[in-house]
Amino acid sequence: MDLSGWNFLRNVRVLVLGVLVLNCYLRFGSDAQPLPEQEVRALQAISTQLRNLNWNVNQNSCINGDGFSNRAILGTDIIREVNCTCTTTVCRVTSIRLKGLNLTGTLPAAFANLTQLQKIDLTRNLISGSIPKEFAQIPLVDLSMLGNRLNGQIPPEIGDIATLEHLVLEDNLLEGNLPESLGRLSRLQRLLLSVNNFNGTIPISYGNLRNLTDFRIDGNDVSGRLPEFIGNWTKLVRLDIQGTSMETPIPRGISDLKNLTQLRITDLKGLPTSFPNLTQLTSLEELYAKVLNINCLIRDQIPEYIGLFSSLKTLDLSFNELSGPIPVTFQNLDRVTQFLFLTNNSLSGQVPSWILNSERSIDLSYNNFTGSPVSSCQQSDVNLVSSYSTTMNETVSWCLRKDLPCPRENRFHSLFINCGGQRMEVDGNEYEEDATPGGKSNFLSFSDRWGYSSTGVFLGDENANYRAISTNSSIPNIYQTARLAPLSLKYYGLCLRRGSYNVKLHFTEIMYTSDQTFSSLGERIFDISIQGKLVQKDFNIMEKAGGVGKTFILEESNILVNGSTLEIHLYWAGKGTTAIPDRGVYGPLISGITVTPSKKVSSYFFVLVPGTISAGAIAGIVVGSFVFVVLVLAVLRWKGYLGGKETEDSELKALDLQTGYFSLRQIKTATNNFDQTYKIGEGGFGPVYKGVLSDGTPIAVKQLSAKSRQGNREFVTEIGMISALQHPNLVKLYGCCIEGNQLLLVYEYLENNSLARALFGKCAEEHRLHLDWPTRMKICLGIAKGLAYLHEESVLKIVHRDIKATNVLLDKNLNAKISDFGLARLDEEENTHISTRIAGTIGYMAPEYAMRGYLTDKADVYSFGAVALEIVSGKSNTNYRPKEEFVYLLDWAYVLQEQGNLLELVDPSLDSHYPKEEVMRMINIALLCTNPSPTLRPSMSSVVSMLEGKIAVQAPIIKRDAVDQEARFKAFERLSHDSITSISTSSQGIPMQKSMLLDGPWADSTTSTQNKDETQHYSSTRNLL
After folding, report:
1. Rounded CA gap, 258 and 235, in Å?
2. What are the catalytic residues?
3. Any idea what the Cα angle at residue 138 is, between residues 134 and 143, rounded to 5°?
4. What pTM, to 2 d.p., does this model score?
5. Domains along the chain?
6. Residue 249: closest CA among 216, 224, 279
7. Ramachandran bin of 317, using left for φ above 0, alpha for ψ from -120 to 50, beta for the remaining angles
8. Contact, 804 vs 1002, CB < 8 A?
9. Could you write out the DSSP letters of every residue in 426-452?
10. Across-strand partners of 80?
11. Which pLDDT band holds residue 716 (cuts at 50, 70, 90)?
């Protein structure tokens, strides 16, 4: 037989063998029991409970796919897939993936009856309810619930699923503390918890999760310090901690995470911190380390080694206080880095030429660069707006300078912008076009009237749009479009006249839906500041407007423009969803801006219609009018209404205060011509009167002495600045009066006078009040919030310098309001300050300030601690001396702390009607605030969180050693020797008892190492209250 015959026989044998094998397989398959009845019932229950699923399940579903559409729709995230594993006798369901199907109903516990189930993926649906604890009964490897409406707490039983490797619970409504039991999941690789409502701290047991590769907890209210055990997660590839209440410092152990490719740690609270040691993180591809909280900025120079990271594609170090030049090594990044954001720092030196020639997206705006100025503020994709240190050098382009001065002579008094859209007319006003695409690092100005600056790249979607266009035709025209940004969006009103303006910001949510799809689960949260003042924290458009497609106008009145520029800043602080309906849909969004003067200005003019009057008549009218005007001016000059003193008064009035202006006649009428029976106190700069305006509004009028016209000008300027500070826990300034030698301030009248009177009055007739514990807690929290605003949130960063019980006033509802900013110093956000004028009150002054004139906001923190002790004890810090060796109540508190008997401080009038835990918390906070070392005192925002129970409080054990005691007594002796003995008075009250002589204003000139420039840079305000 030839070769071809052998080949034929071999092929026949193979064919016969194949048929036999196939026949055996089919016979075996037809005899199998594919799916147990228990699992059929479980799948049917799941189908019923998850509406819209519509499964038709039977025992053969795993073999022939009956009822299961085992497919993923190409090009989408929609997946409907059930996988089974079959043996010779039975099939079992091992994986269920139902993604993007808009399933509703509650999460079925019936999943637990699928005893071999390893994977549940229900991403992007509308499933509600809690996570069943029964899930702990199945050998899950992957549990993913991203983008649903799950609520309640994570069951601690989940920590018993020893096989679990992936737990993805992002974008839900889960709440409560994180269960410690999750620390037992030794095989866990991905733990994604972002955008829920978790609080408390990250349990220490999570330090055992040594196989973690991905940990995310953005947008939760978890608090406490960043845990040191993060250094245990040596396999970590991605770490996201944004938009939480967690605090610095960044743990040293982070330097051990050599496998990290994505690191995002932003918007922390706490104390200032240095740049973390990242030398070993050479695999980094994305690095975000930025903060907006002024008290915990990263204050350092940018390390040179960052420029040697050869894989770094995105570097965001914006909103810190980084100083020094851009490292030379950063030129290496130009080859690999696509996005470099260094905005809002204190970087100096010359902008490197390689940056100006770069084609990357780079943002250097708001820094302190010097050297040869560049030609424009936008060089390709490099944003340089307000990046130079100068304000006066006219050789530097206007848009590079700090104050963005007007580049033209003409000024405007209104502004209308259709953000993201075309030019259109609305209610008779023409809204200007804002239809440019925008970008990652953009500054654009239009006709010298307005501009915007956009910063950031959308996480997970580099190509996302920076304009949004609605398809809903029922939305009003101006709301059909919007501009958005992933991080920071600033709009500027340019060349505005100096004065007071009303600002309306128009919002509507047009990127989410209001239907029964997962797109309705999006949540957009951002912060809004105007002129540097935070006006909305955690602003949520849908919450304010009442839903998707609903309009909302945020209106802020009396916004002061002192120069020529109005700044509106929208900032994303890491909160809200980032993956709904898909990645790249988050961050600040705005539809329109309306800016108009606060007060209408009437213009009077004649209109002469050609042909209606003769040329001679026109000439006669013109000449006659001219003569009339000259005569009127001459009479006014002769009467003294023009020139000299009255002219200066007019100039003072014309400084466009953000406050109301009162005439002297109004004030005299309100106070019955300053009748002595209306006098309610005597302040450091003059008497205080109660008055009633013609509309029945009660007021407090402080009468100040006028020393010089120049002093008046400074007074008016400072009043304009202080009047911008509006907060529920600050005394409200209604306005002022400047006529002749009269300088008058008009404030809201507070019925319950001062906290000192309420706590320390001898009897009820002297205004002592019975304050229960909830009221004391409310007062203490109010003071803390007011100080946090002054230090961190206001357009001016102010150190009060004289916080004490007499400078805390109480309204009719016993809400605390801080008064007397006259002893404040404007804080220019410098790191340290040496004061040449000590101003404060013995017993409340921080040691470093009293002895060395070293002034930071931590001086106020110290004073707050003393006041908090007074609130707890009902005793004056300066008057209470249980034993001769103690000078202050604070000394006695230290002794009681050492003895473990701090509750002895509690006011006896409270009897036992107080929660011991809350009282101890307040006492411990007070001791923490009065730490002799200013660097160990918390920020006031941290104090607020502590009082609210969001941050755990561990008071330090402060030992009263000899050095500390000597320092305290020296400060006391020095101030006592140089002081002027006076009777302290509350800002709106009658004099206190003469025994309280140490509770008054003090001033002491000291020699200082500060040079002239430093002294000018940090000048004191006048006594305004």
Report:
1. 8
2. 802
3. 85
4. 0.60
5. 29-212 (3.80.10.10), 403-597 (2.60.120), 646-749 (3.30.200.20), 755-996+1004-1017 (1.10.510.10)
6. 224
7. alpha
8. no
9. ETTEEEEEE-----SEEEEEETTTEEE
10. 71, 98
11. low
